[in-house]
Write a structure and sequence with these properties.
By secondary structure, the chain is of the alpha+beta class. The chain is built from six helices and eight strands; from the N terminus they run E-E-H-H-H-E-E-E-H-E-H-E-E-H. It has an eight-stranded mixed sheet with strand order 1-2-3-4-5-6-8-7, sandwiched between helices. A hairpin with a 5-residue loop joins strand 7 and strand 8.
Length: about 190
């Protein structure tokens, strides 16, 4: 895999770019402080802007290594920041990119996340030479699975009752992936 890091990429409606030092305020307001968003992810909702600022500051420092792939999603029409999409470094040395994403509930069900995920998949395969792109979701968030399927990923399997949700209820962890050859065979 080529380690070229986070470059600005665009879709029809979005600019996907590096996080900057000013993004934390809107991120806090738009999704980091939201229970609706945080109930589907592993992190807790942020109690104040400082929590978001400290997180974003640490993420900004990570850009120096060229193995960090993390974008903030910005609407082209009004430059509102609405979410993030990133790649876990866990298996990146094997050219396997695991995607994670979240977005303000104000923008759910508009196709924006699918648009962003498709574009990131394109970037990772065509410019970074990734071999496998994966993602997973808790069973209580089927909308995330729909994003994966609409982005060309295939169902891999279910890890039964693997994760506790925010209410302490065990959830299946459902995995999807797309392989390099599957991506290029579609074109």
């Amino acid at each position: 895999m080529k380690y070229i890091g986070t470059k600005t990429i665009e879709t029809e409606r979005l600019i996907l770019r590096r996080i900057n030092e000013f993004d934390y305020r809107k991120a806090y307001t738009n999704w980091c402080s939201s229970y609706e968003v945080s109930k589907y992810v592993i992190w807790e909702k942020h109690d104040n802007e400082l929590v978001t600022k400290e997180l974003f500051d640490s993420w900004i420092k990570e850009y120096d290594d060229n193995t960090t792939y993390r974008w903030i999603m910005e609407l082209k029409e009004n430059h509102e920041v609405i979410g993030t999409i990133d790649v876990s470094k866990r298996f990146i040395k094997f050219s396997t990119c695991t995607l994670g994403y979240c977005m303000s509930e104000k923008y759910w069900n508009k196709g924006l996340m699918t648009e962003a995920v498709k574009r990131v998949i394109k970037y990772l395969f065509e410019e970074c030479d990734a071999e496998v792109i994966t993602a997973d979701y808790l069973e209580n968030n089927p909308a995330s699975g729909k994003v994966m399927a609409k982005s060309g990923m295939k169902y891999d399997g279910t890890l039964r009752k693997r994760v506790l949700d925010k209410n302490g209820i065990r959830n299946d962890l459902i995995g999807y992936s797309i392989l390099r050859n599957e991506y290029f065979d579609k074109e």
